[in-house]
């Protein structure tokens, strides 16, 4: 029944999306409105949570701010609208939000069917396993015969099964309902390892009495590229969101930080000059100011800084960069060339 | 006293001790009361002892967790005592829970809105102010709240995403409560109308709406409605939510009121007509005052339910007080504190709903007095 309703809603969404293809591009609309509406998660550690003043913070939130800075030169011109997992894509289709940065996995079905478009991955998540440090385990391969806490009937259970079976390993599943319950079972030593998406495991770990006594194993047994979605048929807008994210990744590669970006304006390195708009007109080509990337970096810093602040070493979560490192450092982050 | 004494003389039995306020409290009376109420039979004694044992087992631990070992002051997670409640985040986020992301410079508007909304309470309890004025106040209240919190007229517009926390809960709760009652009265009258089309329409509306869960209407308001509107036209999500809350809860109230209307003796209505009163006069002066009085307990329950239903707007991505509290406990600093949030939410809703219930009890007492 849920599926039927979802299909009907998506179907209607596609219809209305195709009806408004000929409308002016979202970029013009956003500029004219003077504020960008960004759909975010109503509470996910490291990605979007309110601070004591009610300002949103987190990895997803900062992407929204960066886009606002690129478009308006002012990172505060963004309105955050919390979305649940059901209405998030529809909200894009119905123009309730301009972009969705709500830890949504890029999948072919969503991109192809729902009247929305993917931009570029902002965080490579994936199902992982967490074990106690005292076990001395460094990889999943060493967990042969272990008991693993999983959720009932989810893809996570199937992923574990496939992973172990294909490697000729055995395991015992302990089915537990819910994240808090599975953490409790793990802490009570009812299972050796607990599985979930790596970002969720990091949050679970932080909630434990001694977070540092647990380690998230480096393997990812499923692909969960999370990133911003935009409404289909708004090519200029999609480019702006995509390339703003890329600019922040490129900035890290070029060693441009929030604090040294003004200095870097004097740089004579062509890559840096084109990125910061001191040479060429990359910004104009996107319908933005040539200082667009400068503004974004000035507002939120480069990708590495954003990551460290919200998820990584400077945050409570202490999440490893892992796949979310530059391709030059063994990760998957690879900005297309700025030329 | 004389009266009671004479009853005692006639029946030869003492009137139950607790009914006599004049007898001074003595140890022996307490013993008698305990014997009679807690240890009357061996089964009573067993139940009493079991409950006492359970309380002795649980209460000290609960109190210790909640207060004695709990952490009230500090700045970070490191200050929390493990194994007990940690109230630091609640204190840190209190402003956010109350005002949500409302612009700080405009917070006087929220304060005024709370004041205007809460002023309804003494007004409702007062017996000196004419009821006409109370009705006017209650009908004007939603407009004032809307102006203060959402903007319009001389007030600067506030974006819906800036409404959250207690502010939003009060906003939705009070407006929905104030406006759903008049709608309900009209629906109830409509369903009992002599005009067939009106009657069918009201009956159909009531039957359809009350047979579908509120949550699906909220979903429709959030997902489906926008798809039917021409592109570029959008209705503020706050409007949609209020619309659903008002027009769904009105249906339940309509049925409560209809039941109470049917309990008004037919003779009174006929008498009223016979005296030359028209339909509206009869309803306003003869039927409704009695019907509303009789439906007070059920209506109050419905109001409480409606107030609690405002938490469902989380589905539409609006962070009312429950959503706001949940969100803050996802903050990396405070992860792993599972119980504090729900306890604060429960405490808030208990205070709010118990106050509504107290008003209901007050109304019933007042009605009882006026009847005799």
What are its keywords?
A: 339 residues; alpha/beta; 2 domains; 5-stranded mixed β-sheet; 14 helices; 12 strands; disordered N terminus; B: 372 residues
Characterize the structure shown.
The complex is a heterodimer of chains A (339) and B (372). Chain A has 339 residues and is of the alpha/beta class. In chain A, the strands form three sheets. Chain A has a five-stranded mixed beta sheet. In chain A, helix 3 (59-72) packs across helix 9, helix 3 (59-72) packs antiparallel against helix 13 and helix 9 packs across helix 13. In chain A, helix 6 (155-166) links the parallel strand 8 and strand 9 (171-175). Chain A has two domains: 2-124 and 224-327, 3-Layer(aba) Sandwich (D-Maltodextrin-Binding Protein, domain 2); 127-216, Periplasmic binding protein-like II (D-Maltodextrin-Binding Protein, domain 2, 3-Layer(aba) Sandwich). Chain A contains 14 helices and twelve strands. Chain A is globular, with a radius of gyration of 21 Å. In chain A, 50% of the residues are buried. The longest helix of chain B has 32 residues, at 340-371. Chain B has helices at residues 2-11, 27-38, 42-68, 88-92, 94-99, 107-125, 131-150, 165-191, 196-210, 214-228, 237-263, 266-274, 279-294, 296-309, 321-328, 340-371. By secondary structure, chain B is mostly helical. Chain B has two domains: 2-87, no CATH class; 91-371, Orthogonal Bundle (MetI-like fold). The radius of gyration of chain B is 26 Å and the shape is globular. Chains A and B meet through helix 1, strand 2, strand 4, helix 4 and helix 8 of A and helix 5, helix 10 and helix 15 of B. Chain A: Residues 35-264 form the Solute-binding protein family 3/N-terminal domain. Chain A: This is Amino acid ABC transporter substrate-binding protein, PAAT family. Chain A: Residues 1-23 form the signal peptide. Chain A: Keywords: Signal, Transport. Chain A: InterPro entries: Bact_solute-bind_prot3 (IPR051455), SBP_3_CS (IPR018313), Solute-binding_3/MltF_N (IPR001638).
